[in-house]
Design a protein that fits this description.
globular; 405 residues
């Protein structure tokens, strides 16, 4: 199976990242580790998605001849689990086939760690990372999208102090354009210059997104100038009932641009009504379950090759030709709808907490956990109090009733 272009053309060497100043800093930090005199135990690479942060860590390990050990911090939030994995690995050379060989320990999404869980108990994720940096015998790379989120707590700031910080800014559209041009040449793609420039502009500095868009364009047009507007309703229905073949469904999914995680929800919601043929019904759900496993590995391993396997499994539903049901009616997934509602609620809560924090001189997290529930509870019972809050703080508190106490 062919790799997705974003994975196939992932930079293998630091120089391919086109970040001279940042790469110079990374190499200086790495050389100090190799000489046994680390500048700082950790390296914090931060920047928006698609700017090459993880690729830089992988290329660094390859360039230095280090073993690569990666852990997604957002998936392993507790202190106990971090101690059992990253901390243990950082302190023992003999776990490797090459005892004298350094290991590069990479923790991705460290800005997704929070000190408290939903029940308010300290999970200790950040304190475990700080312990790792204080005791490691191997170089550690931390990767974050938002360094300010990491530094929002005292422990987070202590973590940052233990790291050399390197900023990966968004790529310029000209850099993205030149990369797309190079890929087109190597893949023998017929993609007009104006389309490449448009993709580069719309990517907003995200190289990975631009390459994915290029792949979608190529799969859809194949050098032709046809206009095909994909619709999620027709795609799901045609796939379920086998009205289009496997390759057409796969191309349609790429053209649609929908997150495969969401597509799985669309398929499950609509396949669930078609259980007349029990064998086909269970087989279809099993394929979707396997696709979900591969999508999980995309995140946990940052391996986008798994995305292609998931797409193939989802597209293969079209080969089953599930029997139609006279009562069948296309449905939008309830889970996606509820997630959208929750996202709106979270944004409202975040905005109110940020404003409240400025007035009480506390962090927005503190306000969200300790103050906002009290305000929401009082507002729900006291209309006069709620009106005073709106007068004092403005329109943002119009949405206060949507916050659960």
């Amino acid at each position: 199976m062919d790799l997705p272009l974003a994975e196939k053309y992932r930079p293998q060497f630091l120089d391919q990242l086109k970040r001279d100043k940042a790469i110079e800093e990374i190499r200086k930090w790495a050389r100090a580790w190799k000489e046994g005199k680390p500048i700082k135990p950790g390296l914090l690479i931060y920047g928006p998605p698609g700017t090459g942060k993880t690729s830089a860590a992988m290329a660094l390990a390859r360039e230095m001849g280090w073993e690569y050990y990666e852990l997604n911090a957002s998936d392993v939030r507790s202190k106990k689990l971090l101690e059992q994995t990253a901390i243990l690995t950082s302190q023992y050379f003999q776990l490797s086939d090459h005892p004298s060989r350094l290991k590069l320990i990479v923790l991705d999404e460290v800005d997704s760690l929070y000190e408290r869980n939903e029940q308010g108990y300290d999970t200790g994720g950040k304190s475990a990372i700080l312990q790792l940096l204080n005791s490691t015998q191997n170089p550690v790379v931390l990767i974050a999208n938002d360094p300010y989120q990491l530094k929002s707590s005292t422990t987070g700031r202590q973590i940052a102090d233990k790291c050399l910080e390197v900023n990966f800014q968004r790529y310029r559209s000209t850099q993205i354009y030149s990369t797309l041009k190079e890929i087109c040449f190597k893949e023998n793609m017929n993609c007009p210059d104006d389309v490449l420039k448009d993709i580069a502009e719309r990517a907003n500095g995200d190289m990975r997104a631009a390459i994915n868009d290029l792949e979608g364009f190529n799969a859809n047009f194949r050098g032709e100038t046809r206009d095909q507007t994909e619709n999620i309703y027709s795609l799901i229905n045609d796939a379920i009932f086998g009205r289009r073949d496997f390759q057409e469904i796969k191309i349609g999914m790429i053209n649609l641009g929908e997150d495969p995680n969401n597509l799985i929800l669309f398929f499950i919601e609509n396949i669930f009504k078609l259980n007349d043929d029990k064998m086909k019904f269970h087989e279809a759900l099993e394929r979707l379950a396997k696709a979900d496993v591969f999508l999980g590995r995309v995140l946990s391993r940052n391996n986008y090759a798994m995305w292609g396997y998931a797409n193939d499994l989802i597209s293969s539903i079209s080969t089953m030709k599930l029997p139609p049901n006279k009562n069948y009616r296309f449905s939008y997934p309830n889970l996606i709808r509820k997630m959208a509602e929750l996202r709106t609620s979270r944004n409202i809560r975040r905005n109110i907490s940020a404003m409240g924090g400025r007035y009480v001189h506390k962090s927005s997290n503190f306000v969200s956990l300790n103050i906002l529930p009290i305000i929401a509870s009082i507002s729900a019972k006291d209309e006069k109090f709620k009106n005073k809050m709106k007068e004092r703080f403005g329109d943002i508190f119009e949405e206060l009733e949507s916050i659960e106490p």
